[in-house]
Write a structure and sequence with these properties.
The complex is a heterodimer of chains A (137) and B (329). With 137 residues, chain A is α+β, with helices and mostly antiparallel strands. Chain A contains four helices and five strands; from the N terminus they run βααββααββ. Chain A is 37% helix and 29% strand. Chain B has two domains: 186 residues, Globins (Globin-like, Orthogonal Bundle), CATH 1.10.490; 118 residues, STAS domain (Transcription Regulator spoIIAA). In chain B, 64% of the residues lie in helices and 8% in strands. Chain B has 13 helices and five strands. Chain B has a five-stranded mixed β-sheet, with helices on both faces. Classes of the chains: A alpha+beta (137), B alpha/beta (329).
Amino acid sequence: MSRTPVDDVCVAIRSDADVVAARSLGRSLAEQHGFGTTDVTMIATAISELARNILKYAHEGEIVVETVERGSMSGVSVVARDDGPGIPDVGLALQDGFSTANSLGLGLPGTRRLMDEFEIVSAPGSGTVITAIKWRR
Amino acid sequence: MAATRQRVHADDLADSIGLGSEELAMRKRFLEFDDDDVQRLEGMYGLTHEHVDAVIEAFYEHLLSFPETTSFFRDPRLLEHVKGRQKNYFIRLTQGDYDHDYVTDRLRLGSIHERIGLPVRSFLGMYAFYLRQIAALLVQEHPGDPEHAFQKFHSLTKLLFFDIGLGVDMYIHQRERTIAVQQDAIRELSTPVLTIRDRLLVLPIIGILDTSRAQQLTEELLRSIRESRAQVVILDVTGVPAVDSAVANHLLQTVEASRLMGAQVIVTGLSASVAQALVTLGVDLTKLNAVGDLQGGIEVANGIMRYQVVAIDDTIPEVVDAGPDPEAG
């Protein structure tokens, strides 16, 4: 298992400034892990979307970015965790243009497209954990 | 009168950093600071009163033996003044009633230390020094009864940790306030709407575009569009480090609002990777008139406004003209 100087990053998300911090820390981790510019931007954008969702719906939570290995594959995983209201209908939340806040409604479906793997664990009242992985090509 | 006014100001101080009576009670519970501690501390009043001068003199002698702290107290009058304050502080530890007034007094002290730039380590060193001095005094006072001395010392430790918590909170609070003021200043500075030429505006956006900044930026732009009756606006996002769906949404809304004010918007400076990420996200950018860079944006604006840039040809002397481009339509 290859170790980069920074192997994981955990950022508490409480304000817009934290979104910026999570994004830039995730970006440098992905760069160090050998991702190309386009993939780095996709990962950074995904972190941004997930962090903004935390602020919008749960008001606070955390983003953990770390390097992952599976077999011969190597990549970066982004975990967004909060104790907010949870998502009542995950299927609906993954549809383009669906938003309970006044936004474009692209956060979750868009993030799924930006990343290679995407998983939501959530239920009303018990918070949300979203795990998204991007593999290095 | 002055005292009353100061009291009011001090009350604001505790409240303004979120130290209501509930929070203070919780802190004391956490330190297990109770009535027995209060009683023991009050019982030490005689001791602190008797030794205050010696302890404070020793403390400043210690403090001034470090060049780093000497610089804070060059003025002998200032030194006398702060010694006086420290004596009050020291005796106050054993005067009971550790509630609101006590807290505001401690906060004020912390805010003074922060203002003069005393490092937190010196501030903490002061508490450690007092603890050592009082420990020695207690041992002297209770020869052959170390348990009694230890109990008193314990109570004092709790109170000093309570004080440290207040002091450190005050340091953090002041720094955060400074940061907030600077952020506001940066915001004010960072939305210049530039007039390139009659009815052509350029808005270079530098830095993070969050909701409040996007709103301010849109307002500023719409005001400029009305004032200068702008026909074309170039929004240059070269200096925006990341564009996600929320930022894209802000941009789209700004474009839409500008259109309703009669101005066409050209967005320039989206990098290739940002463009790709936005398309993957699924942002509908068909309403966005995007051009690669600012130079290209100005060229497109010239086309829309029917301007042409012509190089001066030195072989034809008559063309030299400081006025507006004669080709302008």
